[in-house]
Amino acid sequence: TQEELAVLVASLNDDPSIHGILVQLPLPKHLNADAIIQSIRPEKDVDGLHVVNAGKLATGDLETGLISCTPAGAMLLVRQVHGEDLSGLNAVVIGRSNLFGKPMAQLLLNANATVTTAHSRTRDLASVAKGADILVAAVGRPEMVKADWIKPGATVIDVGINRVAAPERGEGKSRLVGDVAYAEASNVAAAITPVPGGVGPMTIAMLMANTVIAAHRAAGKKPPRF
């Protein structure tokens, strides 16, 4: 029940031996997920979804909060290609969710990129995407982003994960694809993440990184940078 889950979170909040709390979403429909997430102490919110952590990111404070794991992992991949400073680069994020699109745009902006947030209501989405040096797709539409949406030499981060029918594998079989048509896009992009095996493992890695950061802060020690 909602009450049982709330009691569990409260007990974990009060337990000094617990440094990170994550609620595996989506919760069953009879439970109010937002109420549970907002009841987690911000310093233990290793998923980075509490309004305090989201607010710190929105105001450019990357030092005292916890950053949402998937955008943090995606930014690590961007930095591997472009370095810490994205000055002069155009970034387009397709998707405006609170879970990913908005925090991803904030992280890119904080790194000095010129950021456009696009979405289902954006006019001529393909031409907007083609202006991007860094294109991030997170809309949940299988292989929506085609090769002709991508600027030659761009960096493409595919956050989508969609299960589609794969009759070639046998009756009733399926496969995972991203929001980007990987096979054709990889001929145009200079760097591109696959699905599966791209952003997903980075999300898990950043979840562990946030837990390490939270543990250091709880012990009064300077946390490592990731």
In brief:
It is built from 8 helices and 7 strands, in the order ααααβαβαββββαβα. It has helices at residues 2-14, 33-39, 51-58, 69-82, 101-110, 125-130, 182-185, 199-218, and strands spanning 90-94, 114-118, 134-137, 155-158, 162-165, 174-177, 191-192.
Structural overview:
- It is a single chain.
- With 226 residues, the protein is α/β, with parallel strands linked by helices.
- It has two domains: 84 residues, 3-Layer(aba) Sandwich (Rossmann fold), CATH 3.40.50.10860; 130 residues, Rossmann fold, CATH 3.40.50.
- The chain has eight helices and seven strands; from the N terminus they run ααααβαβαββββαβα.
- Helix 4 runs parallel beside helix 5 and helix 4 packs across helix 8.
- The chain is globular, with a radius of gyration of 19 Å.
- It starts with a helix and ends in an 8-residue tail after the last helix.
What's the total number of strands?
7
Give me the number of helical elements.
8
The ordered H/E elements are HHHHEHEHEEEEHEH
- Radius of gyration based on Cα positions: 19 Å
Report strand %.
Answer: 5-15%
Strand order of the largest sheet: 2-1-3-4-7
- Which regions are unreliable across 5 or more consecutive residues at pLDDT < 50? none
Structural class: alpha/beta
Mean pLDDT: 96
Span of the ends, CA to CA: 37 Å
**CATH-assigned homologous superfamily of the largest domain:** NAD(P)-binding Rossmann-like Domain
Q: How many distinct domains? A: 2
CATH fold name of the largest domain:
Rossmann fold
Q: Which outline best applies?
A: globular
CATH class of the largest domain: Alpha Beta
Specify the CATH architecture of the largest domain.
3-Layer(aba) Sandwich
Share of helical residues? 25-40%
Oligomer state equals: single chain
Largest sheet: 5 strands, parallel
